[in-house]
Amino acid sequence: ASLVTCVITSAGWCFCTACASLLGACCGNDKASTIPPSVTSGRRRSVLLLFFSIAMALVFQYGIAPAIVDANDLTSFVRDKWTDGCSQYVDIDVVKSCAGNNGVYRVSAASTLFFAFAALGALLKPTANREAWPAKYTLYFFLCIVTIFIPNDPLFSDAYLNIARIGAVLFIVVQQLVIVDMAHEWNDSWVAKADAAEAQEAGSGKRWLGAIVTACIMLFGISIIAIGVIFSRFTGCGTNNGFITVTLVLGVSIVGAQMSGEEGSLLASACVFAWSVFLCYTAVSKNPDASCNPMLGEMDTVSIVLGLTVTAISLGWTGWSYTAEDKLRSSSEEESAAAATARASDDSEKDVRRDVTGVVTGNDYGTQDDEEQANSAGHAEVDESVLNNPSRLSNSWKLNAILMSVSCWKAMALTNWGAIVANGNAANPQVGRVGMWMVIASQWLVLTLYLWTLLAPRLFPNREFG
């Protein structure tokens, strides 16, 4: 009894300390500092918290949930909460799968709620996203603990499941923007290196251009092989056949549209095509029709691993990519930052030459002499001071909105979009059908949007597309 009292007292002290710290930050009682923390500090701590929540979700799903189901009468209160809505299943393994899914929903619901309040706080106080992080981590941990004692139905197994589906669809759209942005960064970096190598030695830049083409060929090759595997394993019904055919047609259309114009880059198109193939696999593997889904009732480890990989890529871009900060800024802030940089510079703009051309590049790059590089270093210092301007934090709510969608995607990726499977049986096949249509509809949307970005400048040449 004394040990329990000690634990409860310590936990209560931590909780009260965290609340006091958070309240102090919200009321503006932080200590003054002549050197403000980096504008990206809150962004990275948010991303790290979501990585922490993924680890907790896996522990809840594969550790805590099975242990609670197998627990004795001493923990019957908690067991009843975790098996609420799962007792209809006879097989104990199915019950554990159901409880495990709800364990993921608990952690994901906590992170979704956390980032929802973080977004609200960022709207009310722009600097809130980079303050009081020890308190925020503590409060998130306690929020996850509280969910342990809440019944599954209807909060987790019904309400949050549907919320997570919608949020995961939004993530699919956002993830395409992430993939395109990363592909452009990758492409632009290698084109710049090709230009620099070409300036030093004629013909040496072709190696970097060849590397870009090789990466594109590898991505297209992997995508085509994956399409072949999907076609060989998941055909047999009209639904899957249609999904695979539409994916292939839209993928070829994207490549054809990109190759026939100067919009975008071949590397971005290759990445988008690979993303669409993954979504196609995710959709057909959810089909509850056993005649065209040999994986029905099995744990789809491939989807879970790929889903977590996609989540990690998205979180890495959100937390550490320089262009992610630009995407989270408003146009007015971009204009202010550009004006500040321009005022600090004494040099006029100089023309740059393009050494590598064609559909592979997508951007112009030139070389810099020593004087230009020195000026660029000066610009970087100015940019850093602009980046740390608190007025630029007014759109940090966008970051939290994105992380809300990532939380929802994480829940769907770990639970196979809500499917309860064990011993080769799908306990709720209707859930798989809903997930299937939501994923494939999202795929059609993102492919159509990307195809539009390639065709719109040609269809409407007098309009500006930024």
TrEMBL record:
Describe the family membership recorded for this protein in Swiss-Prot or TrEMBL. Answer: Belongs to the TDE1 family.
One cellular component (GO) term of this entry: membrane
What is the protein's major site of localization? membrane
Q: Where is the composition biased (Basic and acidic residues)?
A: 344-356
Where does this protein come from, organism-wise?
A: Phaeodactylum tricornutum (Diatom)
Q: Where in the cell is it found?
A: Membrane
Q: Which residues cross the membrane?
A: 47-69, 103-123, 135-151, 163-183, 208-231, 243-259, 266-284, 304-322, 401-422, 434-455
Q: Which InterPro entries match?
A: TDE1/TMS
Q: Where is this region: Disordered?
A: 333-385
Annotated membrane topology is: Multi-pass membrane protein
Would you tell me the protein name for this molecule?
A: Serine incorporator
Q: Which domain of life is it from?
A: Eukaryota
Which keywords describe this protein according to UniProt?
Membrane, Transmembrane, Transmembrane helix
